[in-house]
Amino acid sequence: MRDILKQLEMALKEMQAEESAVKQAAEKQLALAKEMAAEIDQKSLQADVKLSQAQVLHAEASRKLTESEHRLHEIEAREDALRRERHSIFAEYVLRSIPVSLFCPHNFISISS
What pLDDT is attached to residue 14? Predict the structure, then answer.
């Protein structure tokens, strides 16, 4: 019976040693998992900051694009107005440089004669 008792005590000690080893391994894995979770949280916060910065940059780029398009339309409108004015001035110049005598009806040549 003493042998059985000794075997039981040895088995119990082995089980306790295994339990202790398993517990230590589990604690290490838990610590590692917590560390990884903290890193993930930190990276997530960094990603959120970068996303916010990107949204700010996108909003600024959109605003500048809108301003540029508005300026472009203003410039195009001014170009059109200047083009019309130039044509008008040129037409007036041409009309002023034609002698008045050319407008007299008796100076027109009749093709039918």
Answer: 94
Q: Which DSSP symbol is given to 111? A: S
Q: Distance between CA 76 and CA 82 in Å, rounded?
A: 10
Helices (H) and strands (E) in the chain, counts: 1, 0
Q: What is the pTM of this model?
A: 0.54
Amino acid at position 48, single letter: D
Scanning the structure block, which residue is given the tokens 């027109």? 108
* Of the candidates 106, 84, 87, the residue with the CA atom closest to the CA atom of residue 95: 87
Helix %, strand %, coil % of the chain (to 5): 90, 0, 10
